[in-house]
Amino acid sequence: MFDFDLPRALIAERPARPRDSARMLRVSADGVKDRGVRDLPSQLCPGDVMVFNDTRVIPARLNGKRGTASVELTLHLREDDSCWRAFARPAKKLRPGDRIAFAEDFSAIVEEKGEAGEVTVRFDRGGVALMAALETHGRLPLPPYIRHGEADETDRADYQTTFARTDGAVAAPTAGLHFTPELLEALDRRGVKRVAVTLHVGAGTFLPVKVDDTDDHRMHAEIGVVSADSAQAINEARAAGGRVVAVGTTALRLLESAAGEDGLVRPYAAATDIFIVPGYRFRAVDLLMTNFHLPRSTLFMLVSAFAGLDRMRAAYAHAMASGYRFYSYGDSCLLDRNDDDQL
Questions:
Q1: CB environment 289-322: b (16+ within 10 A), e (fewer)
Q2: Phi and psi dihedrals of 278, rounded to 5?
Q3: What angle do CA 166, 303, 85 make, to 5 degrees?
Q4: For 142-187, how does the pLDDT look when each residue is reduced to its tens digit (9 = 90+)?
Q5: CATH number of 8-57+158-341
Q6: Which CATH fold would you assign to the domain 62-138?
Q7: What are the sequence ranges of the domains in the chain?
Q8: Cβ atoms of 334 and 40 closer than 8 Å
Q9: Per the omega criterion (within 30 degrees of 0), is the bond before 90 cis?
Q10: Same topology between domain 8-57+158-341 and domain 62-138
Q11: 83-107, pLDDT tens digit by residue?
């Protein structure tokens, strides 16, 4: 149902340059229309509010040694200033109490061992000092479908949004990668409001759904924050007739986690593991700007829930036939919510 075959040649290895020169597929009840990201202001109305995720990607992939054995960690969820959950390779021989050294003066202790290669590690420092050590010794964790996940110096800028502010993500909120200062200024001139929220995207976002029943899939939790000011701005815009436009599935998931049954967005500061599949009733978001996602992924399920499975399958077929570029560095689409497919 959520599977499709994508030619390898359509997976983008590098972003469009400049960022806002990417293509954008407009998906609505009227069908699909080929547009460009620079057309975004004309697709929105004065009074609409765009919600951006201002998380900043950290160099969350580390190579270390447990004794003489090599270990690679990919951090994915911060527990506190010095403690993180991580995916380890290989994880089989790791035990609680093991020390992993990343440099002569930088190490971590395994505190817990979970399922599917997950471990909890506590570093020998926290806060600003830990972030500095990650900048020195870590690597950006590119998704595995881009150059086998191996980032280079160019990715340090490319795989970061222009509005990234808050350290903590291990994957970029990729819909935001299309924005330039010029595009943001054009949206301002159009009268579109802008609001920032924070969801620290985890590496679990790359994992495919391997079970037949989506009820059996376990989402990895991610930390999100919606400030009181942001919640108020979103609610006021909607009350005045504006539409809420989520920039990326991360912003959408956070807004839906923070919204009540009445559709009002409340201040929020907690982990969320919301898993949205067809049949979900959306509360807060009216339009979604997002990239093209992997088959059998939770993100393709989410966009199918938002715009309708048949509509998204048709849109993806059009995108593939038209040579759109897929995944994190690829092109974009702008989706209307399809209430007919919701409970």
A1: bbbbbbeebbbbbbbbbbbbbebbeebbebbbee
A2: -50, 140
A3: 40
A4: 988 899 888 999 999 999 999 999 999 999 999 999 999 999 999 9
A5: 3.40.1780.10
A6: Thrombin, subunit H (2.40.10)
A7: 8-57+158-341, 62-138
A8: yes
A9: yes
A10: no
A11: 999 999 999 989 999 999 999 999 9
